[in-house]
Design goal:
Blueprint (H helix, E strand, L loop, with lengths): L1 H61 L1 H12 L18
Organism: Candidatus Omnitrophus magneticus
Protein name: Septum formation initiator
Keywords: Cell cycle, Cell division, Cell membrane, Coiled coil, Membrane, Transmembrane, Transmembrane helix
């Protein structure tokens, strides 16, 4: 009977020690899993952005009309006999 009680107490102490030892490791594991998930999401976003940039490079290298479109948008380049109309915000009283 005494040995049974000693075994139970010893088992409880052993279990408590295991919990105390491994609990910080479990929380660290959870933190690292969350960090890993965030990094995987970031990598996926960067891969998509990289793919879009590769497509942009291909268009800029091979498509003259795309280059023209970008020049018109960014530099305001006009063709001969083209005009830009700007709307005025002046109010007439």
């Amino acid at each position: 009977m005494v040995w049974k009680k000693i075994t139970i107490v010893y088992s409880i102490c052993l279990f408590a020690c295991a919990v105390i030892i491994f609990m910080p490791g479990a929380s660290e594991l959870k933190r690292l899993q969350n960090e890993n998930r965030d990094i995987v999401v970031r990598v996926k976003m960067l891969e998509e952005e990289n793919e879009a940039l590769k497509e942009e490079i291909t268009k800029l290298e091979k498509d003259p009309s795309y280059i023209e479109q970008k020049a018109r948008e960014k530099l305001g380049i006009l063709k001969k006999n083209e005009f830009i109309y700007k709307k005025s915000n002046v109010k007439n009283n």
